[in-house]
Amino acid sequence: MSRYASDGRHDGWLRISAYLALVIGLVAALALTASAAELGSPMANRTSSSVDLPDPTRVEAASLGEALARRRSVRAFAGQALLLAEVATLLWAAQGRTGPEGLRTAPSAGALFPLEIYLAVGSVEGLAPGIYRYVSGRHRLDQVAVGDARRALARAALDQSWIADAPVILIIAAVPSRTAAKYGDRSARYIAMEAGHVGQNVYLQAVALGLGTTVVGAFDDGRVKDAAKLASDHEPFALYPVGHPKTAAGGAAPR
Ligand SMILES: Cc1cc2nc3c(=O)[nH]c(=O)nc-3n(C[C@H](O)[C@H](O)[C@H](O)COP(=O)(O)O)c2cc1C
After folding, report:
1. Distance 66 CA to ligand 1 centre (A)
2. Contact at 8 Å (CB) between 78 and 245?
3. Quick check: 198 and 173 in contact, CB under 8 A?
4. Short-list 155, 152, 126, 151, CA closest to 141
5. In this structure, are strands 212-213 and 168-174 parallel, antiparallel, or unpaired?
6. pLDDT in tens, 205-220
C-alpha cells in the first residue's frame, strides 16, 4: 500500500472525528436550548439563588362556589407573614404547570405563554426579602434582586400606600413578542385576556387560603419595571398585593 493511500485513510478518520465532534456539539446545544425553552426563560436569568417550592396545597376548605361568592378586593392587611407553602400555592394557581407539554393552570392563546410572574417578597417565612421570578416548569423561584421593594412598588402605583403593607406583591409581566410573532395586532388583546385569567386564579386561590388581594392596574409602567427589576423585554401588566385580611379587631383571621 502506498504512503498516499495510508495518508488518505488517516485523513478520512480525522474528517469522521471532526463530523462526530460537530454532531455531538450540535446535539448538546439543542438540548440546552430545549431545556431553557421548557423553563420559559433565557438561561441567563437563572441566578445562583434559587428556591425549590413545596408542592401546592390542595385546599379543600373552600369549594369553587364559596371562593367565587367570597371573592372581594382586600386592601387592608394584618402584619402576619405568609408561609412558603401559601406562596407556593398562589404561584402555582397563577402559572403552575399542569400538563406534560408545559400546559398551565391558566389558558394561553396558541399555548405561547407570554406571561411571567414576579414576586416582591417582604414578609414570608423561609424567604428573604427580595424580587423573585417564578419558574413554572420547575415550580421554583429564582432570585432576581435582594431587598424589600414593596415601598418602591407602592410609590410606582401612584402612591397607593396600602400596597406596601402586604407581605408579598405578585406581579404579572408579559413578553409581548412571544404572542405577537403569531398573532400580530391581536396579541395585545390576547395577552390582556391571559393576564385576566391568571389574576382571577390568584384571587380565588387567595380566598381559598384565607388570604386576600386586589388587582392593581394604576401604576407607572417604567417605575414598576425598575422597582421589580423586570427584564428589559418584560412589561408589567398588573400587581397583586397578597396577605391576611385585617379583621375588624385589627388582627388576622385565624388560619
Ligand atoms: C383592571 C383593573 C384595575 C384595577 N386597579 C385598581 C387599582 O389600581 N387600585 C385599587 O385599589 N383597585 C383596583 N382595582 C380593583 C377594583 O377597584 C375592584 O375590583 C372593584 O372596586 C370591585 O370590587 P371587588 O373586586 O371587591 O368586587 C382594579 C380592578 C380592575 C379589574
Report:
1. 20
2. yes
3. no
4. 126
5. unpaired
6. 999 999 999 999 999 9
